[in-house]
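User: structure tokens for this one?
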Amino acid sequence: PYQFTKQRVTEEAINASDLLLFTKDYYYYEAETGCLFFFYYTNPMSPTENAIDLIFCPEPDNGGPAITDNDGGDTSTGGNVGPSGGGGGSPNSDDPSNNDNPYGDGPQGGGDSTGNANPNTDNSNNTDPPQEGDNFDNPNSPVAVLPTFDEIFIDQEFKDNPCLKSVYDAMGKAKKFKEYLSNFEPEFSVAHLRFKYDENFKDNKEPQNWGALAITEPPLGNQDIVANYNIHITFNGDTNLDASIHNKPKLVIAVAFIHEMIHAEVFRKMLSAAQQGHLNANQYTTQDRIDYINSLRNNFPGIYDYYVERWKPNWGHEQMAQHYISIITNALKEYDDNQHTQEQYEAIAWLGLEGTIAWNNLTQVERDNIHQTRTNFIDNDTNKCN
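Assistant:
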């Protein structure tokens, strides 16, 4: 069962919407109207639950016909039409009194590539769906009207910090970091990811986050802080705070990158499950909350387990400590080409995750060894950000 929504969609509406799951394999171009549709699964776990959204139709005065049904209304044959976007919970932060963890992170929110076409080719009578060879920039192409979406943004202040930017670039060698980052590219993303650097971190963030090297903030329904369908990763550049990136080993900054990317990936999945654009369940209807929790349980059982069944204020860190230490460790090894010992990588990987159940399940000797190994590394490493 599919559902067609035949409504006029302006470019402004596209930019304001969440129709961002663009995958060329699922475009459908209707030659008669000049309109572009997008086919997608409304439930990724069920290939029989599908929908087709109208992406764009040319204005009649630009040579394209208006779209109407015979009765002027919508045509529906079942299924659901809607974006893949946001969902639930209020932010909670780690205990700032944990002095053993000066590099923790903050909020735990409840957590084109196109082919080349011959520019002289006349596509005006092209009746085929867009293919890899279609050029989106060619005005003769049937999809030339489609705007380009950039899902990953890097603020200028971030780019202007050479040390931070160099660590970010080098993290491209880490397979998991690159994988998580690619999930925010236009073909897959349900959210924008923004990297930020804040020299006024103390003034701009809540006191419970002043001890964080970086924080990841999901949208929580307040457009002035984080807009819907956006996720921010902000690095602490405030020299008035001990936890700022200044005078920290690059490997410690690297662990902040992969740590925060894991949070961002979890929030991205939660946004996909909730389909609201933000993660503040207090602003949902009762049915929205039910649908959101059911979607988490069906599509992301690992998140559901920690966020619902075993909920704690730091549930994101509980999940990360139990399941991601080896992923973080391997990402660090790939980042700097195995220049350090396994023990050093593992000790750095635990930053921000102490006080969790997984941490407390370690023996006292194991915890002491991690502390000592990490302290020695931070004190003696000379490859630091100034």
